[in-house]
Amino acid sequence: MEIAFQVLYLSCNDTEREKRGKLYIAYFWARDLELIKKDAPNADISGLQHQFDAHKHLFTKKNGKVFKNWWGDVSIGSIARESAAEETYLADYKVFSQMAHATPQGMLVGLKGTHLEILDTQHVSTILVSGTRYVLTVAAQWNLEFKIIPEVDLHAAFDEMREFKF
Fold first, then answer.
1. Among the listed residues 38, 31, 1, the one whose alpha carbon sits nearest the alpha carbon of residue 130
2. What gap in Å lies between CA 121 and CA 165, rounded to an integer?
3. How far apart are the two ends of the chain, measured CA to CA in Å?
4. What angle (nearest 5°) sits at the alpha carbon of residue 65, between those of residues 59 and 67?
5. Nearest 10 degrees: Cα torsion 58, 59, 60, 62
6. Is the C-alpha dihedral spanning 126, 141, 24, 86 positive or negative?
7. Contact status, residue 6 vs residue 79, Cβ threshold 8 Å
8. Angle between helix 151-162 and 124-146 (nearest 10)
9. CA dihedral 68, 69, 70, 73 (to 10 degrees)
10. Is pLDDT of 81 > 90?
11. Which of 5, 104, 106, 137 registers the highest number of CB atoms within 10 A of its CB?
12. 31 to 41, 93, 98: CA distances (angstroms)
């Protein structure tokens, strides 16, 4: 769900698209640099450090700290609102939150050795249908830019998803 709202936010404003795209990529340089310094202290990070230094003005606050998210310190709900998708966000967030928080921890999934085991399948169909909708939304946004999927196929996938009956 969150990735779909990020993609919508990246592409919803033609005048901001390029800036947001640069910010999206630059933010990963900041995160990668931090992870590499922590996990591989002896690695040659000069190239990554150069990219970080060249773009840090895009993702750092006045106090020098990196923003919480690539879009700043606002919530995913805020970018959904700015992307004209707040109604969808609120409805889906409510459903997913109820699924996650209305069940005792460990009731839906559990650890069996080193594998995660699904203990209750009550919400699987809802999650799969919702997940499919979000994946198709991301694919549609990418397709606006890259024209990989024939429009007729994309529309057919959306129609099939909309007509799905539990």
1. 1
2. 17
3. 20
4. 45
5. 50
6. negative
7. yes
8. 160
9. -70
10. yes
11. 5
12. 15, 26, 31
Where does the pLDDT of residue 82 fall: very low under 50, low under 70, confident under 90, or very high at 90 and above?
A: very high
Tokens of 55: 């773009």
Q: pLDDT tens, 12-58? A: 888 998 889 888 888 887 777 777 878 887 878 888 888 888 888 88
Burial class of residue 89, CB neighbours in 10 A (0-12, 13-18, 19+): buried
Residue 6 in tokens: 């990020």
Q: What angle do CA 138, 141, 145 make, to 5 degrees?
A: 135
Instruction: Name every residue whose Cβ is closer than 8 Å to that of residue 19 and which is 6 or more positions away in sequence.
Output: none
